[in-house]
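thread from #wetlab-drylab

HS: before we spend reagent money on co-crystallization trials with zinc ion, can we at least see a predicted complex? here's what I'd submit
DV: go for it
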Amino acid sequence: MRTFVSLVLTCLIVAVAPFTVFGKEASKDEDIYEQRMELYKKAEAVSLIPWYYFAAIDQYERNIRLVRRDLPKAKGALGIYVKPEIWAGPLNKNPNDTNPLTISQFGGLGMDGNGDGVADPTNDEDVIFSIARFLQSYGTDHEHLKIALWEYYQRSKTVDLILGKVKIYKKYGTLQLDNHAFPVPLRANYTYKDTWGDARGWGGRRMHEGTDIFADYGVPVRATCYGIIELKGWNKYGGWRIGIRDINNTYHYFAHLNGFAAGIEEGQVVEPGMVIGSVGSSGYGPPGTAGKFPPHLHYGMYKDNGYTEWSFDPYPHLKMWERMEKIKQRKQRDHK
Ligand SMILES: [Zn+2]
């Protein structure tokens, strides 16, 4: 009897917990999104640069900081981090200078955005205002902003990642783009398990960098996130494959496709659930090679940290998206 009661209790806790957690997180998230949007809109007002450029830079940097240990954690609503020597000016003897006058004499980026007479690199308004003025000094149109980004980051990959986010934010007009979908429809017949790190024989000794979702030929493959199609085409191992870059700098890799959905092109914005192709067995040979293994979707995830990119295990994420989608479907059914 006692086991039964504790079992029931455990089930209750498990069943109730996710909803309370989601509820709390949702309202907290909305607040922070509102705060951020307010800052971006202020920057837009003073610079005439559309808010989504600031949103894209901020989102890029927030995610870089999350995965890098050499950068301090963000304290305010913004993720943008300006290095002391850039903020104060490279020749400034005081890298912690907060005097707007001396900073500007030394060619620093730091400015006073909130009118308190101090250029504080930890103050959100000062930071966004300084970035806005820096970008504006190049111009306010897309081409000049691209040059400004290149001058600031000196890395074309970073510029591409930021411009991808510009496109996404511009299209949806919101910062709330956290939804995900499972890569194949839940009603389809599929199986997958955690095979991260397993040895793979094909193409020499390699580690398995992903999760294989086994399903029939032609089962739709869907975008799992809001993102940009960064790559589409043939690869000797992956066959017909697509790579999607999401707003968290994560690259989602879909391989061994049977083919692509009509109209899917590089540079296109996608959203969770959008069909991008179908399950196949292409790969391990020249273009068109297929059938060397049972049909499945190879799903990989890679993270960019501002210098380089590494793969990580997609399995826990797939499990989570699958569970979230099931909960959503159940809710939709209950409301009908
Ligand atoms: Zn695989």
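DV: The CA atoms of residues 43 and 206 lie 48 Å apart.
HS: ok that's useful, forwarding to the group
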